[in-house]
């Protein structure tokens, strides 16, 4: 499979959906903007139909049947100008694996796996250094597996709103933590346009730091983050009208409990297939 250098546009990686930064409507990239970014990425690669075993550089993985038809791979050059790009944008040169024809694609999220040199990235970012400490602590069971201890996503200019389905997970030469989450910068419903499977891990030798963001959906969540969107059967209505802080806290708590109670095969794609993808990762 041919590969070309992939320059990731940071704006496309942000998922503006929710967070307690204020009670206003969240800002979101337009559908056309995100579609343009994704299209330009795809055009830079040669698609290989029915491609399941992926090797690029020192990274290999296996795509479970039905999850995607291809992987678009590339090397993202180092981004170091935090004043121009924002502190969330800086990163060393790293590998990006983008899943093509993924079973669920949203406007806010790209199905991707990123592999960074851990030492270089942690020296550039205090958040990454803290993320790696948390991942190591959770894997070694010296830090509790709890929402407040989940590692953040350094390239999102937004914060974690919920944390569900948390568990440690091993891959071929390392381990990490996975969860189902949504990020955002305002108060809004948890929805199928924002929900995603998030993994962060570290290789056993400490050389590579891995982040995966993979959209997933549930039948009881609304289609988008519009508070007026219909709530499917079994879902939880978003607080309306004169709702206050405790109302929103109760809503997010109930949604988290509902997602935690969902079976792996209720998710689309299933948690089983997403776990299998992560477990197949190997770095040389």
Overview of this protein structure:
The protein has one domain (10-222, 261-279). Helix 4 packs across helix 5 (126-139). It has helices at 10-13, 31-43, 82-85, 118-124, 126-139, 245-261, 271-279; strands at residues 53-56, 59-62, 70-76, 94-100, 112-117, 159-171, 174-184, 196-203, 208-215, 282-283. A seven-stranded antiparallel β-sheet has the order 3-4-5-9-8-7-6, sandwiched between helices. Strands 1-2-10 form a three-stranded antiparallel β-sheet. The protein is α+β, with helices and mostly antiparallel strands. A hairpin with a 4-residue loop joins strand 8 (196-203) and strand 9 (208-215).
| Sheet/helix structural class | alpha+beta
For the record, give the distance between the C-alpha atoms at the N and C termini, rounded to a whole number.
19 Å
- Number of DSSP-assigned strands: 10
Poorly predicted parts: 1-50
Backbone shape: globular
Strand order of the largest sheet: 3-4-5-9-8-7-6
Average pLDDT reading: 83
Q: Mind summarizing the main beta sheet?
A: 7 strands, antiparallel
Beta-strand share of residues: 15-25%
Our Rg estimate from Cα atoms comes to 18 Å
Helix and strand pattern: HHEEEHEEHHEEEEHHE
Question: How many domain units?
Answer: 1
What is the number of helices? 7
Q: Helicity, in percent?
A: 10-25%
């Amino acid at each position: 499979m041919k590969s070309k250098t992939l320059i990731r546009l940071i704006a496309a990686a942000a998922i503006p959906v929710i967070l307690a930064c204020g009670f206003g409507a969240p800002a979101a990239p337009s559908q056309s903007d995100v579609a343009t970014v994704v299209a330009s990425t795809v055009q830079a690669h040669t698609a290989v139909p029915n491609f399941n075993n992926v090797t690029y550089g020192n990274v290999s993985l296996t795509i479970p049947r039905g999850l995607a038809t291809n992987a678009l791979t590339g090397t993202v050059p180092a981004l170091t100008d935090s004043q121009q790009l924002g502190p969330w944008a800086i990163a060393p040169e790293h590998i990006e694996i983008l899943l093509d024809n993924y079973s669920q694609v949203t406007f806010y999220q790209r199905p991707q796996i990123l592999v960074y040199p851990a030492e270089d990235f942690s020296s550039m970012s205090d958040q990454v250094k803290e993320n790696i400490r948390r991942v190591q602590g959770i894997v070694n069971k010296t830090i509790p597996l709890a929402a407040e201890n989940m590692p953040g996503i350094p390239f999102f200019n937004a914060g974690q709103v919920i944390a569900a389905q948390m568990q440690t997970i091993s891959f071929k030469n390392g381990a990490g933590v996975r969860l189902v989450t949504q990020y955002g910068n305002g108060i809004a419903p948890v929805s199928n346009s924002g929900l995603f499977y998030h993994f962060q891990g570290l290789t056993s030798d400490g050389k590579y730091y891995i982040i995966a963001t993979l959209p997933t959906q549930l039948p009881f969540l609304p289609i988008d983050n519009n508070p007026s969107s219909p709530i499917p059967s079994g879902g939880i209505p978003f607080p309306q009208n004169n709702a206050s802080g405790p109302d929103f806290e109760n809503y997010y708590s109930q949604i988290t409990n509902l997602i935690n109670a969902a079976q792996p095969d209720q998710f689309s794609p299933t948690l089983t297939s997403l776990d299998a993808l992560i477990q197949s990762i190997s770095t040389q």
